[in-house]
């Protein structure tokens, strides 16, 4: 799946995908939004923020937000668009994120959710001096995770096919 196909799919679902980019000192900061537009009003149902740098492991995911009560497939559209963008517009092949430690129950839920998406644990970022750089980059401690962009995109494409949203060529 590519960005154009995902935008067409979002329109079929009554949604729209917007990708905002800003480049600073070689870093590409992005914000991917899935929204609903009706009566000249925009309702943002979900977003992904992050940045990338020129490396195959350079996709860094920072913020994922999906509102309760959002329409079906908002999460899948955000994940698929993020991975498609990375594969089409950067040299990134792998994504990293930090499931932040905020409270024990929520952190465990985040790790479980990200594993379901296709991420695996790299390490626990804690208060060790060796973790200082990672804590500065991510703004806290948590579970550092990595995934292959193509694998996530393939998994989500399967979900869309199962829901009969994609048709064979």
The helix content is: 25-40%
What is the molecular shape? globular
Number of helices: 5
- Terminus-to-terminus distance: 12 Å
CATH class: Alpha Beta
Q: Note the main sheet.
A: 7 strands, mixed
How many domains is the backbone divided into? 1
Q: Detail the poorly predicted runs.
A: none
Beta-strand percent range: 35-45%
So, CATH architecture?
3-Layer(aba) Sandwich
Total number of beta strands: 7
The name of the CATH topology is Aminopeptidase
* Class by SSE composition: alpha+beta
Instruction: Report the CATH superfamily.
Output: Gcn5-related N-acetyltransferase (GNAT)
Layout of helices and strands:
Elements: H1 3-12, E1 16-24, E2 27-38, E3 41-52, E4 59-66, H2 74-89, E5 94-100, H3 104-117, E6 120-125, H4 132-138, E7 142-148, H5 149-162
Parallel strand pairs: 4-5
Antiparallel strand pairs: 1-2, 2-3, 3-4, 5-7, 6-7
Helix pairs in contact: 2-5
